[in-house]
Amino acid sequence: MSNERTIAGHNVQVNDEGFMTDINQWNQEVASALAEEEGVEMTDRHWEVVNFIQDQYKKEVALSIRKMGKSGVVDIKEFYSLFPNGPLKKASKISGIPKPQSCI
After folding, report:
1. How far is CA 43 from the centre of its chain?
2. So which residues are the catalytic ones?
3. In Å, how far from its chain's centre is CA 84?
4. Helix/strand/coil for 97
5. Half-sphere exposure of 8 (CA within 13 A, CB side)
6. How far apart are CA 29 and CA 41, in angstroms?
7. pLDDT tens across 20-79, in order?
8. pTM listed for this prediction
């Protein structure tokens, strides 16, 4: 089920868990607002990870913590430090993609 929500002045479609359902509505302003809600202060390093996640999503690659660690973009320890308390879930939400299957 999809709901409309205003994030950073943009109307976006989200599911019941707050994940965006249309990546085409995503932009950096929306991402920054979502990051703030998740308690994440975005840096260049965060944007690199977000861009990688979006690229993988567009290629229809299923993401997991293990795949992120083997990506060459970020190791698991840094991933957890960038996006504490559920890094894949938080990073995916900020990236504007649906929650990965591997997330609880």
Report:
1. 14
2. 103
3. 13
4. coil
5. 14
6. 13
7. 999 999 999 999 999 999 999 999 999 999 999 999 999 999 899 999 999 999 999 999
8. 0.93
